[in-house]
């Protein structure tokens, strides 16, 4: 089977030749270890600074080259690729307040996190921290600037025939993270659930309007990612989920299927309580399965209705050793792979501080043959 055939078989609950493997995200640090050179893939603060400095072409060229090489070196079956910044897009560098803090012209304050190497939005200002892109719809059809497709077209040319390609469909933006939205959403969920439902549906409808464009390009799937909970459980009751979030999720699932694509749902938190509704909405793949959700139990209870993507704790990938990672991968394969409906990967993504030997251990447990640049160089020497 090709990687594309393998993933499609798993999603359709047909047992493939071997277990599919993949990651939604691999941060720049472990990616650099695999590639043997620096990269802007999931570049976090390094990427943000490069864009502030006007180095858009350097970033995009890295994404083109390194996305393809990373997939091949790790022997992955799936790859996510998205729109990039159009040529000519400029960011105005913010004022540096101290060694870890910046403030832009609107008063937005950003602070560097040494632990995750992210730049976090600490305080909201009076305006957006991203330049506004023009409307790209012509005659009700999505038509992005050709330069926004540079990475997509390169990856499609290199991997589109052989690998399972999926996309988030959204515009390129700086990877500046914020948890400030959570409090506002929780208040609106309590005070104005119908208003929140309308906003959520409108956001997904905006993506639905883009679906035909990405289907014509040849994508196999779409990923949507909205966190519905934390380790203790969902942010809301099942009744509130059905009222506020279910209609939008069902809408985009139906639209994906009408356009011949699968819907991958990424959502953090212990969502066992909500998973029946997510399946009813039509998701094809559930990704970001926390260890406490018990993936073997999910396979037992829901494995006939949804493809599970995960199995190895991304926390343990950072702090554990290769033997433990190999054990988790083999256990997940043994409990989840029979009958299809399973893709092996981390419980979220491959993050900074993940040792290369742990990545290799996970992939080798699935019968893969990763070729990190450093190992290849030793063999050549």
Keywords, separated by commas or semicolons:
381 residues, alpha/beta, TIM Barrel, seven-stranded parallel beta sheet, five-stranded mixed beta sheet, 16 helices, globular
- In total, the number of domains comes to 1
Largest sheet: 7 strands, parallel
Structural class of the helices, strands and pairings? alpha/beta
Strand content: 5-15%
Instruction: Please estimate the helix content.
Output: 40-55%
Amino-to-carboxy terminus distance: 33 Å
Overall pLDDT: 96
| Count of discrete alpha- or pi-helical segments spanning 4 or more residues | 16
- By DSSP, the count of extended strands is 16
Strand order of the largest sheet: 1-8-10-13-14-15-16
**Shape assignment:** globular
Structure overview:
By secondary structure, this protein is α/β, with parallel strands linked by helices. It has one domain: TIM Barrel (Alpha-Beta Barrel). It has 16 helices and 16 strands. The chain has helices spanning 3-11, 28-35, 44-52, 56-74, 150-159, 180-191, 193-208, 211-217, 238-244, 246-258, 275-281, 295-302, 314-319, 322-336, 356-365, 373-380, and strands at residues 78-80, 95-98, 101-103, 109-112, 119-123, 137-138, 141-142, 164-167, 176-177, 221-225, 229-230, 233-234, 262-266, 285-287, 307-312, 342-346. It has a 7-stranded parallel sheet with strand order 1-8-10-13-14-15-16. The protein is globular, with a radius of gyration of 20 Å. The mean pLDDT is 96.
């Amino acid at each position: 089977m090709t990687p594309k055939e393998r993933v499609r078989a798993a999603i359709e609950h047909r047992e493939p030749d071997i277990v599919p493997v993949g990651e939604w995200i691999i941060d720049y640090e472990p990616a650099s270890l695999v590639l043997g050179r620096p990269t802007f893939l999931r570049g976090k603060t390094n990427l943000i600074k490069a864009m502030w400095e006007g180095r858009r072409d350097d970033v995009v060229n890295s994404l083109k080259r390194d996305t393809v090489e990373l997939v091949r070196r790790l022997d992955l079956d799936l790859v996510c690729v998205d729109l990039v910044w159009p040529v000519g897009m400029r960011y105005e560098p913010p004022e540096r307040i101290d060694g870890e803090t910046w403030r832009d012209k609107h008063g937005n304050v950003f602070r560097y996190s040494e632990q995750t190497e992210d730049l976090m939005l600490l305080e909201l200002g009076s305006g957006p921290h991203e330049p506004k892109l023009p409307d790209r719809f012509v005659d009700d059809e999505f038509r992005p600037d050709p330069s926004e497709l540079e990475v997509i077209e390169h990856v499609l040319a290199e991997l589109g025939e052989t690998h399972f390609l999926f996309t988030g469909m959204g515009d390129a933006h700086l990877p500046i993270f914020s948890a400030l939205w959570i409090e506002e959403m929780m208040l609106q969920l309590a005070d104005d659930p119908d208003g929140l439902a309308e906003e959520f549906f409108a956001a997904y409808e905006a993506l639905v309007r883009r679906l035909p464009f990405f289907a014509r390009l040849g994508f196999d799937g779409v990923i949507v990612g909205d966190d519905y909970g934390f380790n203790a459980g969902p942010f809301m009751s099942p009744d509130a989920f059905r009222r506020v979030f279910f209609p939008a999720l069902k809408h985009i699932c139906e639209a994906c299927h009408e356009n011949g694509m699968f819907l991958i749902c990424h959502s953090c938190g212990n969502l066992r309580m909500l998973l029946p509704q997510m399946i009813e909405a039509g998701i094809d793949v559930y990704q970001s399965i926390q260890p406490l959700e018990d993936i073997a139990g999910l396979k037992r209870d829901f494995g006939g209705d949804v493809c599970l993507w995960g199995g190895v704790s991304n926390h343990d990938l950072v702090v554990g050793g290769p033997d433990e990672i190999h054990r988790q991968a083999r256990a997940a394969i043994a409990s989840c792979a029979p009958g299809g409906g399973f893709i092996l990967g981390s419980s979220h993504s491959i993050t900074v501080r993940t040792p290369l030997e742990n990545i290799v251990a996970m992939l080798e447990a699935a019968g893969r043959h990763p070729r990190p640049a450093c190992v290849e160089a030793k063999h050549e020497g």
